[in-house]
Amino acid sequence: MSQIQSIRGMYDLLPGDSYRWQYLESKIKQVTDEYGYSEIRLPIVEQTALFKRSIGEVTDIVEKEMYTFPDRNDESLTLRPEGTAGCVRAALQHGLLHNQTQRLWYFGPMFRYEKPQKGRNRQFYQFGIESFGMTGPDIDAEVILLSARLWKQLGFFDHVTLELNTLGSSEGRAKYRKALVDYLESYKDRLDEDSLRRLYSNPLRILDSKNKKTQELLDEAPKFDEFLDDESRVHFEQLKQRLDNAGIRYVLNPRLVRGLDYYGKTVFEWTTDKLGAQSTICAGGRYDGLVEQLGGKPTPAVGFAMGVDRIVLLLETLGLFPADVGHNVDVYFMAVGEQEELFAQRFSEQLRDEFPGLKMQMNCGGGSFKSQMKKADKSGAHIALIIGADELARQQVAIKDLRTTGEQILVGFSELAVQLKQKLPQ
Ligand code: ATP
Ligand code: MG
Q1: What is the pLDDT of residue 426?
Q2: CA dist., res. 131 & res. 146, Å (int)
Q3: 8 A C-beta contact, residue 93 and residue 46
Q4: Atom 24 of ligand 1 has which residue's CA nearest to it?
Q5: CA–CA separation, 125 vs 390, rounded Å?
Q6: Considering the domain 15-168+228-317 in this protein, what is its CATH number?
Q7: What is the CATH number of domain 331-420?
Q8: pLDDT tens digits, residue range 117-128?
Q9: What is the pTM of this model?
Q10: Residues 303, 131 contacting (CB under 8 angstroms)
Q11: Pocket of ligand 1 (CB under 6 A)
Q12: Which residues form the Aminoacyl-transfer RNA synthetases class-II family profile domain (predicted)?
């Protein structure tokens, strides 16, 4: 019979990978702690209406990328394609936004039906920040600084660029949208198929078209800057000032618009030239209208989502995972003979009581001294503990250094703890 394979674009994280992910996750946990953010864990499945209402009906995500299905009760459900909608839904449902601010983070799988390629998967992972209840540019700066600190912690701050833009107010966007459509309508014949499709549904998205001809056309198009309201302009200036103040460099990109409808004012992306086409590793911005749009009181909000798969790729590409990530055995415990095994199992439990956190693997499945030694070596352990008939009779354990000297010494059961403390890397 043929074997069943995983679904295209959805991959397994094997032990070698999972240690790397755990390393990245521990850095995420550290940096969110450093800024006083709390984790929120949300369902992977939500009502389809939630995403339609928040992300927007005519976005790529809702039009083409969602995994939507009727459940057994014929309710339309969707595997979450992003985290913000669910986070706002939960915050509203549990009253987290009543006269209070919130600083939240989440981590987990997201699902989009896309063409799988390097850095683009159908099940992928996002780490995201959402902060609620704060209107000023200070919190915009904070979420950007938090992301920058993570890049520094991970060691690739010098390989990423912060792109920054403001989308102004919804009134300004509506006016600009009209001006842009008026302009592009007279050049319809020069627009590619994608841009034509977006001309009336989502014209701002044309701004970040990758098509060269479209980009040339846009050089002469009306500029959003003329439609920017004063409040948004001041907000943006103050944000830039804060980033300057913190020594965070950025590139202004007036064509940066986001693929999700709920953004206004600040938008930003962190990009890298190390990953080919899938160059954005983190994207976010302000979405002051979304809470109200989902049935709450008007609540300012700003956040970002990081593409964790792409960050793992970047760390791999740049060789930035520490060498000892995945080292999970320090001590390999061998016992040759039935009585010896019984004793060793009991003894190993005592050692675990005495050394919480000791990375010790017990030989299972018996075997000769030689075959156990091979397994000990393969485990990556620094030392082997060995109990054979002689050792058991004399109430001793052999300690063998597996990595440097190869030296083997015999110690009494009662001295083992002291010896182990000396021999293990601190
Ligand atoms: P892209 O332009 O790459 O399709 P997007 O604008 O659709 O990105 P967002 O919805 O803003 O992406 O998601 C934030 C981040 O999540 C992206 O910058 C990227 O790093 C990551 N991401 C999005 N879609 C995928 C995917 N299919 N596979 C892996 N990572 C993804
Ligand atoms: Mg996309």
Answers
A1: 66
A2: 12
A3: no
A4: 120
A5: 53
A6: 3.30.930.10
A7: 3.40.50.800
A8: 999 999 999 999
A9: 0.94
A10: yes
A11: 82, 112, 114, 119-121, 124, 126, 259, 278, 280-283, 305, 307, 309-310
A12: 1-315
